[in-house]
Every structure is written in C-alpha cells, then in structure tokens.
Amino acid sequence: MKLYYNPNLKMRSRKLRGGGTLAEALLWNKLKARWFLCLQFHRQKPIGNYIADFYCKELDLVIEVDGSTHRDRYDYDATRQAALEVLGLSVLRFEDEQVRKGMEGVLKTLEVWVEEKRGMGHDAR
Q1: What pTM does this model have?
Q2: DSSP code of 5?
Q3: Mind listing the pLDDT tens digit for each residue in 17-59?
Q4: Which letter does DSSP use for residue 52 in this model?
Q5: Which of 67, 93, 105, 121 is the most buried (most CB within 10 A)?
C-alpha cells in the first residue's frame, strides 16, 4: 500500500533526523541497517499529516518514542494514532525512559510483536 504524506513535512522530517532525543538515537542504532530481525526501518517518516519516529513498511508498523514533548498531549497523540491506524498501520509506543534504561525489554517487546504479526499469516518476510 502506498502511503501519502503532506509534502510540507518533508523538510521538517529531514531536520528531525539530524536531531532527536537520546532515546530515539539509541533505538535507531538498533533498528537501522536491517540490524533488527532483518527489517528495514525509516526514521522520522512523514505519513499523512504526521511524522512517525520510526516506520517499517514490511510490517505496516509505526514506533513512537514518547518523551517530555508528549506530556500533557494525550488528546493529540490519540488523534494522531487513530489517523495512522485508519491507514492500516499498527502503532507501538515506548516511553523515553523505557528505551534509555531498558533497551533489551523494548527489543523483546518488538520481537514478540513481530512474531505474533508473522504468525497471523501476514507477509512480513
């Protein structure tokens, strides 16, 4: 499925790739270059009117790392997640501290999610 995005977000997503939080950088080091289960992830991927922290086309998966910028933005995050889910995407959320202090647990959660998705008969390679 082809995902469309607001072209006005392209430059912003490029800037975000150069920055980001420590937790995002740490997780990116585990996801990039097909290191994690040979899956290809993209960082700061524009989708619709939003920018996903991480996106895997093979799994229709968005991963969000919620740090201090997400505090008190529950309604916005819920709206955003619903918009992504309408596109057929699954959204996994991790807290910033969870990634920084418990990377093994985050990766295990992702691994279990991928195994369950693949077990459901989806072509996730």
Answers
A1: 0.88
A2: B
A3: 888 899 999 999 999 999 999 999 999 999 999 999 999 999 9
A4: E
A5: 67
